[in-house]
Design the sequence.
């Protein structure tokens, strides 16, 4: 399969869904029991309609907007001259120590993903790390799995990420610290396995490149330089790189702090109380601060809209600090946006089945019927069945809370022993995350493959061994949790 045919893979999955929609009735759970409606077939008109709706949905458009804004940010960074200087310095410092940089990269993305459960803020850092990895001579699959892949691995081994652990606590009432030791051990193991997998893969890649192309290491690096996304080498600049580092790090940290719900996760309401006090400041009964700040939410309740605003402000600030001319600023921003537009499109369209699953007027979906079929096969809890249901759910729902929401009523009705819930939560979290490494309906995976120009077939051939490794580890952890219940 050619690298430009990623859409064909998604089209095949969509076609399978369309066929199943004519066969499997849609249903929903009420008081733990399946209420099955008639089938809700995707007709010829809807085959065209749903992709359009997906690409025009405000939620997915916002995802795409953030991605292209990241492109615009790096387009402006390229115009400063200082960014290229910073990249070259990091590359020079890590020459001969590439594996060390890979380890640092994987740990940063996996750890931040596990602790926060946030994905889009981390994408701000991805182009920089990717560029350095490519300039150090590593190939695109290695750079892909070290960044996009590490983010997904962090979700698999989620510890405190609110979008995973927080919602599990909400739906199953397990507690944010439930099985935290098991989760932490699991995260450490699968991250270590990822590091070892990438190091082995990078060694094999260099050998294959030299054998097939007759290239020396230096020539391989030069080849990657020409194809590093969102990077343009510029003449050396005497300008300091400190503002770039400070602003970028500040934006990522502020986005994480602002988008992580501290109050619900940890009962930490300092940010909320501070926000109320600030917004309550009046001058002669005139709400001065609320009018000046506008509709800004308290830290912990920020959304992707706020993230988009942060990226825009950071881009403008960097352009101003480095005295980038208006014409160069505009051209750089447009160049970056253009480069990321295809990635944004692929990330948006990957949500097509997810959108269909959430667009039913009755709330009924074929997944509810499918999950009920499997979960009803045994009277008592069966881990294998839960693994199967979670895996199928990972194809339908690329957003974990929606999978939890769909199954919550049935799980809590079928399994009244609350001691089982930590095991169920771990199974659903780990298996759903593993599936996101493999399916074209995974927004992060699909966008990453487009970003690097990697075909789906090439990716599966590259990643399958690691997937088997972490699946085996997850099964071991499941057994340990089950024994300790």
Sequence:
């Amino acid at each position: 399969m050619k690298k430009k045919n990623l859409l064909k893979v998604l089209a095949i999955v969509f076609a399978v869904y369309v066929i199943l929609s004519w066969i499997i009735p849609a249903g929903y759970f009420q008081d733990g029991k399946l209420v099955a409606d008639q089938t809700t077939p995707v007709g010829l008109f809807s085959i065209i309609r749903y992709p359009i709706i997906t690409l025009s949905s405000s939620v997915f458009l916002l995802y795409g907007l953030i991605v292209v804004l990241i492109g615009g940010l790096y387009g402006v960074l390229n115009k400063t001259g200082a960014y290229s200087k910073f990249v070259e310095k990091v590359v020079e410092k890590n020459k001969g120590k590439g594996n060390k940089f890979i380890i640092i990269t994987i740990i940063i993305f996996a750890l931040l993903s596990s602790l926060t459960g946030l994905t889009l803020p981390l994408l701000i850092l991805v182009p920089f790390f990717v560029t350095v990895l490519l300039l150090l001579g590593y190939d695109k699959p290695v750079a892909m799995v070290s960044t996009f892949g590490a983010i997904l691995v962090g979700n698999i081994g989620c510890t405190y990420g609110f979008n995973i652990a927080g919602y599990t606590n909400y739906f199953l009432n397990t507690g944010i610290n439930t099985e935290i030791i098991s989760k932490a051990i699991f995260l450490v193991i699968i991250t270590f396995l990822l590091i070892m997998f990438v190091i082995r893969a990078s060694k094999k890649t260099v050998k294959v490149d030299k054998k097939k192309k007759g290239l020396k290491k230096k020539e391989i690096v030069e080849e990657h330089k020409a194809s590093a996304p969102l990077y343009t080498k510029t003449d050396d600049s005497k300008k300091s790189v400190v503002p770039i580092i400070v602003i970028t790090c500040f934006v990522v940290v502020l986005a994480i702090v602002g988008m992580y719900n501290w109050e619900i996760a940890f009962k930490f309401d300092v940010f909320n109380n501070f926000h109320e006090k600030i917004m309550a400041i009046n001058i002669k009964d005139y709400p001065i601060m609320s009018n000046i700040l506008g509709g800004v939410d308290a830290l912990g309740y920020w959304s992707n809209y706020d993230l988009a605003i942060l990226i825009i402000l950071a881009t403008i600030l960097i352009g101003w600090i480095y005295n980038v001319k208006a014409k160069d600023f505009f051209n750089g921003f447009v160049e970056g946006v253009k480069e990321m537009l295809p990635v944004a499109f692929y990330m948006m369209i990957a949500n097509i089945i997810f959108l269909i699953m959430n667009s039913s007027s009755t709330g009924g979906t074929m997944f509810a019927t499918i999950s009920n079929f499997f979960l009803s096969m045994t009277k008592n809890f069966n881990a294998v069945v839960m693994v199967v249901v979670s895996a199928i759910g990972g194809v339908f729902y690329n957003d974990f809370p929606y999978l939890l929401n769909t199954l919550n009523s049935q799980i809590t009705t079928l399994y009244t022993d609350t001691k089982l819930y930590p095991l169920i939560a771990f199974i659903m979290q780990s298996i759903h995350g593993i599936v996101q490494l493999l399916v074209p309906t995974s927004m992060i995976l699909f966008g990453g493959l487009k970003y690097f120009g990697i075909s789906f077939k090439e990716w599966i051939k590259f990643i399958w061994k690691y997937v088997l490794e972490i699946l085996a580890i997850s099964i071991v952890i499941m057994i340990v949790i089950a024994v300790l219940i």
Residues 3-261+301-484 form one domain. The chain has a mean pLDDT of 88. The first strand starts at residue 27 and ends at 30.
